[in-house]
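Whether sequence alone determines local backbone shape is best considered at the level of individual chains. For completeness, the protein is quoted in full, as a sequence line and a line of structure tokens:
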Amino acid sequence: MRHRPTFLLLSTLVLFGSCPAAIQAQSAASLPACEWCGAPDAPATLSATAIIAPPGEPGTRLVITGRVLRSDGRTPARNVLLYTYHTNAGGRYARRGGETGNGLRHGHLRGWLRTGPNGEYRIDTIRPGAYPGRAEPAHIHLTVTPAGSEER
């Protein structure tokens, strides 16, 4: 029986929460069926650093670093695709125009990276804002796609 490997994600800071409840008016036919995924939109070439919020993006700068480890909790998991997205400082999934795929839902503050040889990664961004009028705390969405496996 073949076992599918599992992975453990460790970081200095990861903020989790629920997916966005509403998106701007958009034809459902042009959106991917999976509301939270982003791996299919990843660029072909990636490093172990993702710059989500470019310089000048309003908000408090935030750097997230960490390592992805295999399920034994010791072995680094290299070349794992991480996809991350979050709201702007005002709590909105704002678009700049030209977004495709789930960028239509997730806005422009999103990015991808592949973990380095020691499973390490770095995300340069801003602190997201909480959804206006809702109780969920501010958070950052993150998916993990090990080589040869599905996004989760």
